[in-house]
Amino acid sequence: AIGDPAGIVSGTTKVTKDPVGLKIARNTTKLLEELGMIEEGLSMQTGAGGTSLAVAFYVRQRMLEKGIKGSFASGGITGYFTDMLEEGLFEELYDVQCFDVKAVQSISRNATHHAMSGSRYANPYDKNVVDDLDFVILGATEIDLGFNVNVTTDSHGKIMGGSGGHSDTAQGAKVTVITTNLVKYRV
Questions:
Q1: 47/78 Cα distance (integer angstroms)
Q2: Which residues contact residue 147 at a Cβ distance below 8 angstroms, ignoring those fewer than 6 apart?
Q3: Is 86 helix (H, G, I), strand (E, B) or coil?
C-alpha cells in the first residue's frame, strides 16, 4: 500500500545467514585486511545483498577491535550503516537511496547522514563520491565464462535486475571485490 513503510525493506537487504556467504564474507574481510584497507579514515561501500552486508559486519568488527574510524560510507544506505554511523565508526554517510526504514529515519534526524543526487554520487564529468572510495564490495547475479560480472542482463541478454551503482563504484573505488558463490541454484 502506498505510504506503508513495511514495504521498503526486503530479505535481500539483510546480512546473510547462509554459511557459504558468511565464509565468503570472512575471507573477503581477511583480504581487505591484507591489502591494508581496514585502516583509520577508510571509505567504503557495499551492495545491499546479504553477503556484501556480511562483509560490512566483519569490517565493523575489525574497526572496533582496531579502534579506528572511517571517513565515510556511501551508496544505497541500510540500517546497518546507520548503526555504524551512530556507533562513531564513520564520520559521515552519503546516501543516494535509503534501502530500509532505519535509513529513512536516520537521514531525517542525523546531520552527518547526507542525501545526495545521482550526479554527486557518480557523475563521470564532475567531482563525485565513488571516486573517493577506498573499497567497494559488490555481489553478482552471474559471472559468465568471459568473467563478466552480470547484474543487469545475463550472458544470454535476458534482463535480470538493476545494477544500482555497480559499474560506477567498480570504476571509481581503489579496490573492487565481487562476492558471490561459485554456483547458484537458479543461475
A1: 10
A2: none
A3: helix
Strand pairing class (135-139; 90-98): unpaired
> Rounded to whole angstroms, how far apart are CA atoms 95 and 98?
7
Mean pLDDT of the chain: 88
Q: What whole-number distance in Å separates Cα of residue 143 and Cα of residue 166?
A: 14
Q: Return the closest-CA partner of residue 168 out of 104, 87, 94, 110.
A: 94
Give SS3 for 62.
helix
Kindly list the distances between the CA atom of residue 66 and the CA atoms of 38, 69, 81, 89, 153, in Å, as whole numbers in the listed order. Answer: 9, 9, 18, 11, 40
* Contacts with 11 (C-beta within 8 Å, 6 or more apart), sequence order: none
H/E element holding 158? Answer: none
3-state class of 96 per DSSP? strand
Q: Could you read off the pLDDT of 89-122 as tens digits, one per residue?
A: 999 999 998 878 888 899 999 999 999 999 999 9
Q: What is the mean pLDDT of residues 151-178?
A: 83
3-state secondary structure of 129: coil
- Residues 52-73: tens digit of each pLDDT: 899 999 999 999 999 999 999 9
Computed on alpha carbons and rounded to an integer, the radius of gyration of the chain in Å comes to 16
Task: State yes or no: pLDDT of 11 exceeds 60.
Answer: no
Where would I find the H helices in 36-76?
50-66
Task: Tell me the one-letter amino acid at 32.
Answer: L
